[in-house]
Structure of DUF6917 domain-containing protein:
Amino acid sequence: MRENGPKREITATVVKVLVHQRDDRGMSLEPFASRCVRGGEVHELVTTDHDDTTPGARIDRVGFLGFAEIGCAGVIDRGDEVWIGGLRVGTVLGFDGCHFPNHYNILIHVPQPCTGPDLGLKPELGVRFTQPD
């Protein structure tokens, strides 16, 4: 059964760069494959090499990229490509809600966890969440 039709690209802007990594973070994957976001919300971008999408999967190995302000409302789906400043960073693995309703941790699957400085991130860089072809 096909669930997903075309959707708008979600844009955002880096508002704070984060510089740390952890191997024992203990995040828990939300049971949702998508989340709606509103313009003006701020969410945290977190990289991980975990690939288990089972609801409740424990996410320990993480690198923190930073916080991004959502520019336009829309839907972020598992599998969306994440681009920052023209660089394809990885794909959305899912969401951790440990800080919600303040913000979601948007978990980005990458080969190896990385931080904001690892990618040369700076405030005001553009972020895009795009639907894969």
In short: DSSP finds no helices and twelve strands in the chain. The chain has one domain: 10-130. The chain has a mean pLDDT of 95. Residues 36 and 75 are 4 Å apart (CA to CA).
